[in-house]
Design brief:
Largest sheet: none
Number of helices: 4
Strand content: under 5%
Distance between the termini: 90 Å
Radius of gyration: 29 Å
Helix content: 40-55%
Number of strands: 0
Length: 100
C-alpha cells in the first residue's frame, strides 16, 4: 500500500512541475521565433512598368495587372495565354492578337 501512495505522490509532483513550465508555441527547427506567414504571390508595385519588359512573371500580381491592362484582357485570360504559349511577351501578344 505504501508503494502505491509513493507512486501517486510522484505522479502528482510531476504534474505540478509540468503545469508551472511556460507554454511555448511550435518553433522552427532553426529559430527561437515562430516562422512568419509568407504570401502566395509577390506583392510589388511597379509604377513605371513591368518587372521585365520581355517576360511576364505569372506569380507577380503587379505583372499580371500591368500586362492585363496593356493587352486589354482579364487576368484569367492572360493566365490561360501564359499556360498555352509561355511567358515571353511577344508570344503572348501574338496569341492574344490572333484570338481577339
Amino acid at each position: 500500500m505504501m508503494c502505491g501512495l509513493a507512486l501517486g505522490y510522484i505522479f502528482l509532483v510531476t504534474m505540478l512541475i509540468q503545469a508551472e513550465k511556460p507554454k511555448r508555441g511550435k518553433m522552427s527547427e532553426h529559430h527561437d521565433t515562430p516562422k512568419a506567414h509568407e504570401a502566395h504571390a509577390i506583392q510589388e508595385v511597379h509604377a513605371k512598368g513591368p518587372h521585365d519588359p520581355k517576360e511576364i512573371n505569372p506569380k507577380m500580381s503587379s505583372d499580371i495587372a500591368y500586362w492585363s491592362k496593356e493587352f486589354g484582357v482579364t487576368g484569367d485570360k492572360l493566365h490561360e495565354a501564359i499556360r498555352a504559349h509561355g511567358t515571353h511577351v511577344d508570344k503572348i501578344r501574338a496569341a492574344l492578337h490572333k484570338a481577339g
